[in-house]
Design brief:
This protein is of the alpha+beta class. The chain has a domain of 126 residues. Strands 1, 2, 3, 4, 5, 6, 7 and 8 form an eight-stranded mixed β-sheet that branches.
Length: 197
Amino acid sequence: MYIALAVGALFLAVIMFQQANNFTSKTFILEVEEKREKKDLQFQNDPESPIPQDKKNSFAGLKYYPPKEKFSLEAAWVTPEEVDTLRLLTTSGKLREFLDAGKLVFELDEKKYQLTAFEYIGTDEQVLFVPFTDETTGQFTYGGGRYLDITIKEGWRLDFNDAYNPYCVYNEDFSCPIPPRENHIDTRILAGELDYK
């Protein structure tokens, strides 16, 4: 009897642990969905939208993975010893210069990863550019990788629910930086924007 109770308790603990890991609060879901709705409206109506004018009437919105708090992660910031200027290849074959601002180190499924964050040159915006690829790239997400924009602040967070496609996905007139090899995450990031096509 005691063995059966112990096994039952262990089974219940495992189920509760799995549910806790898979739990995403309604507030978090609503916040993510609200941002996505605003982006759809902007893409359809803004004159500076990457959607070509002749395709706006047929634009039915972007596609995403469902919101998951699991992919909203705290990160540690590592400042480089020297700030170097790096050139990233773009989809048009040109090179674009960025500053190597530092690295964001994070943990996902008990494994550590790091991404290089880049700073835009010639702008006062307090935003870092984090291009990346992962194991969904070219299958469920855009083959040229996705982007994150991170606000410069104390207390870093990488929210892959906000991962978005480069503008060249929607319009070939745009030239988009290609994520460097060092920014490949060797796991599936099942969050953020899916491939538009």
